[in-house]
Structures are given as C-alpha cells and as structure tokens.
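Hey, can you fold this one?
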Amino acid sequence: MTPLRRRMEEELKLRNYSPATIRAYVHAVKGFAEFHHQSPEKLGAEQVRAYLLYLTEEKKLAWPSINQAICAIRFLYIDVLDRPFEVGKVFYQKRKRKLPNVLSEEEIVRLLDAAANLKERAILMTFYSGGLRLLEVIRLQPKDIDSTTMRIRIREGKGGKERYVVLSATLLDVLRQYFRQFRPKQWLFYASKPERQIHPRSVQRIVSEAARRARLNKPVSPHVLRHSFATHLLDHGTSVVYIKELLGHKNLATTTVYTHVSRQALGKVVSPLDRLCVKTPAVKTSA
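Sure. Predicted structure:
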C-alpha cells in the first residue's frame, strides 16, 4: 500500500465513510493514477480534466460512475493533498432522471407465488413490504423484527442512517414460519452457514429467477420491488412525505419521482381539453 493510499483511507475513515465508499474512492483514484502512469501527487488540473474526458468519451461511463470518480478525485485533492485549486473547475455531470420501473400489484402477486421455497418468499416479501434496499435486507438481524410495535429496524441504511419501516402482518406470519424452519441467529437471511451473510448476488438471483418463473417480461431487481412499494403506497393515498421517511430519502425531490408513475395520481388529472365544451365531429363513412 502506497503512503498516499494509506493517507486517503485514513482520512475517509476519520470522516466515517462507509467501507463500500472507501473502496470505491480508492479504486477511482487508482484508475486515475494508472491512466497517467503517475502518482496523483505529481498530477494536476489538466490531468484531471483529461481523465474525466476519457471516462466520458472513450469509456462512455454512465453519469453516476463519472460523478463518483469526481467525488473521489475531489476528496483526494481537497481533503488529502490540500490542493483544492486542482479541482476548482471540475463540475459534476448533470443527472438524467429516468422514471423507475414498477410492477403492478397483480405482477407482485405473481412474483411472490413464483418463489421457489419459504426462504425465497420471505426475502421477496421483505423487499416489497417495507421498500428496503438490497444491503438493508442482507444486514437484517432477527432482533430487528419487532412484532410488538410492528416495525422493522434498519440499522445501516444509506449514508449510515437508521430508520424504522412498517412490519406487514402478512410478512410477520411468513417470517414466523421461516423462523421455525431456519432458526436464524446472527443474520435473518444467512448463506450456507448461519454466521455468514447471504451474498448480494444470491439475493439478486432469487429475485430475477422468481421473475422468470412468473413470466414477467421485464427486468426485475430488488430495487424494482422498492420502487413498486413506493408507487403502490402513493396509489393508495399515502402522503409522499411519509413515503420519503419510509424509504430513507434525504430529499423530498427524490421521492416525488413516484408521482410520475403512480396510476392513481395520473388518474386524478383531468386534461384541460376535457373541460371544454367541444363537440366531437361525426365520422364520415363511405357510402
């Protein structure tokens, strides 16, 4: 490990960055150094600009990946090397907001019914019932399921934030069956051994395979279940402010994207054309 990498990791840890973010930042800076075949200490603003153009034009990375590289490089020069002038004119790429993929309630039922076994059904239900992220489900412990208050405790949400989500009565019944059969101790959903967390890829495979068996002709991931949770809550009249808290969003603007895909919200909108007294012309038919 180089001295610069060690310093960067130490600074990230002192600021309480998550292990995943530390790995991503270090990897991004490593890519920057390898591109120029020099230590970042010997590089500057022009080299930063050249590298970001390379990521954009040649590697054609998506904006989240490029912005993560920018975050890492800015952290390096501002917080580690104390050379903020090197990144003073580096700007984040504009975010392209796409509407989330959402399953209908009927498709959710088909997906749950296509679970291969009790464990997979419990995992699928946990995603959808509380709108949890992938890592939030993986990190769940048995003690996080509170049947007294009917809440699930999310200990390590995005950004290290803790929150509670609703515990569905239907999910609770399934989890009680799951507890009796699998006897989880350290982790709610464990791998081949009870002391090991289930791997993210294994969970993603469970979701995609259930979608295939359910004949859902669209890509389905754990995050699609989270999007569906939020959209269905909105469909049934839940306040977008409350949904924001359940999802653990930092900004309300992130949550309001679901208003664009909610069938109920769109159904309440009346086109201005329908408010006009316009006569529909008769359709002429040929003799």
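The first strand starts at residue 145 and ends at 146. Let me know if you want another pass with a different chain boundary.
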